[in-house]
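Appendix B, Record 12. Input sequence as logged:
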Amino acid sequence: MFKIKNWQEFQPPLRPDRNVIWIKLYRKILDDFDWSNLTDSNKATLIELWLLASEKEGTLPSVDEISYRLRKDKSFINKQLNQLATFVLRDDADTLPNRLPRVRVRVRVEKEKEKEIEVDNGFELFWNNYPKKVGKGKAEIAWIKHKPNIDLVLKTLTWQKESKEWFKENGAFIPHPTTYINGKRWLDEKTEGGTF
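Logged structural output:
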């Protein structure tokens, strides 16, 4: 089950005396860094998801129902939900291992034999939530080297993406993903007055 992030902050409550379902958009979305980094397809889908969520106080229906209501293929919806992870939250019932992608990693089993195994490392989830999308290959190598805790990374990114420093000069001070990972920036501490 999915929910829209911060639904109560931006949307009006349903009124039982009216059959009108609607959503509010604020002008501040034009200055939202996460919104500006979405593709046009992501933006269109997100607006449709907001409309669906308005029927149940911010909660989205199942992927099957979303697929039917939006007249889109289920694989497209799953991909969009993954790409919109900054705006659409998974219910606590969905555990972390179920949402992490599998990647192939080569490991040495014996001196001269190599074997490919699959591991959950959270890199794709990090990549989908990180605002600056450059140097993916190098970033993934750094991710595998440092093995950061994805929950901690996502928690830290939540406030970092709203920091004044990252908004300066249209995002010029956002570190490249590889620099972020190598610098272990998910361990940074939030400073007072650092966000809007």
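The chain has two domains: 2-90, 122-187.
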